[in-house]
Amino acid sequence: MTISERSEGLRPESERPRVAVIGGGLAGLATAVAAADSGWAPLVLEKRPYLGGRAFSFVDRETGVEIDNGQHVFLGACTEYIAFLKRVGAWGNVRIQPRLDMPVIRNGKVSNLRWSRRVPRSLGLLPSLLGYRHLRFPDKLRVAYGMLKIRALRRDRDGATLDSQTFDGWLRRHGQNDATIQSLWNLIVLPALNDDISVVSADAGVMLFQTALLGGSDAAAIGYSQVALTKLAGEAAARYLEARGGRVRTSTEVAGLEIEDSCVRSVVTTAGERFSCDAAVLAIPHFAIGDVLANGLSAREPFSSASRLESAPIVGVHIWYDRPVMKDVFVAVLDSPVQWVFNVDRMHSPSPSSRALTKRPPPLEGGGVGAGEIRIPPPLTGGDPPGFAARPASPIPPPHRGEGANSIPSPHGGEGQGGALSLSKGEGPAQHVVISLSGAWKWAQMTREELRDVFVPEMARVFPAARDAKVTRFISVKQVQATFRSVPGTAALRPGAATPVRNLFLAGDWVATGWPSTMESAVRSGNQAARLLAGLKPRRVTETGEPGAGSP
Fold first, then answer.
1. Residue 56 pLDDT more than 90?
2. For a designed S-S bond to 214, which of 122, 231, 269, 333 qualifies (C-beta 3.0 to 4.6 A apart)?
3. DSSP structure string for 400-422
4. Residue pair 518/387 in contact by the 8 Å Cβ criterion
5. Which of 8, 148, 16, 93 is nearest to 552 (CA)?
6. pLDDT(290) > 80
7. Residue 302, preceding bond cis, omega within 30 degrees?
8. What angle do CA 42, 303, 387 make, to 5 degrees?
């Protein structure tokens, strides 16, 4: 018995049921952490050499600087994600606003959307709305009316009707116009749902506003990591699991499951290893199910419905300047392709708990594209959403449903005018900013040079201090299938955690959690799977003959 087992009152691993968690993203880690606390011995199997799924960091080869794959923020309403960070000891590495405070720029004019505690709980946005400089007074009244109509809705009763229509259509039938939709409603929907308001479902839009913007000052507050993402959740969760008898295996790709008598008996890797288990959890993206399950099983419900979910891409544009160009931690921009821009240097504070990684992830290259241009393919195991990632302001029409929504051509690389400029060794950038572009079909097909030609001049237009600043480094990070799309009809495709296989469960942001594709949804799905595990109470697996190589 290990020290941790004695101190935590856990049974030795040999006496605890084993659960194989396939995928080391937030959903898989949340499953494993909750399962370990309820008496299981979890084994996390992740294909990539690092944990965190779609919320990870990597080392830029040219500068040696560790950067996040994209900008990830969360809201105070993300209660289970927050509880997960606290449980694994990562809460000290995040910062969250005491209340919502969001600066919005249009043509040089700044107006803040702030939460007020001087009014009833669900009306806290009203005072700043009345002073919002980007809407005329009659349009402010329209927004207030729309908020009241949303507040009165009951999703438990009207969810199916809401999921059959777009949020844009619902808003226009309730008094909204182009001005209110583009200057306020879409400003919130774009970063939260990773799709334009014209195509997201009314159910997803209503859920967002009821939960966050009408949920009180704590619910609407914006939080972010002060450390590189791999350290924040992945490393903290791995330490937590290993201290409680769990195991984590990275660089381990799962080839399939061995199922007998409608029960999973073992997990097999592409390297030929076999891990016997009492239960298994598929914590992988919806589009990867067919790569793990046999065809006959993946064609059955609920797997077949989940495979019909659509995906949307995100592009992160990282710019290093030789001097500061912005003061705020983040800024939303109207009437500009620079929809949201984040000040990385302000976000990653040099507090003792966030100065260095205990284990830095490997450098990440572009995989066939030019230096400074990174294209991240969809993971087969692991992977979680980027949270409320920022979006471009101007609506970019996504492809028609079923016509290339999940396919992005590889961009062309190469240096040249507008390309990346390397930093000298040991030289630190004066300011590192990130522009995050979601629903980014248009941007994902551009080369790095083309993106530079758009966003460097636009940053100089929005931020006067950038006009005389020198760009010392410019890279783009493209995530092909970053999140599932919350288009009408999506709710019916999202499965629960249970499957026809008695001891096989599902976890992932795409599972039916009541939340869109966010870090909160990923953690909620893991907790759902762990609750089903807790009620399974399996017999301990007994081996017949010699266990396969790598068996726990």
1. no
2. 122
3. PTTSSTT--PPPP---STT---P
4. yes
5. 16
6. yes
7. yes
8. 65
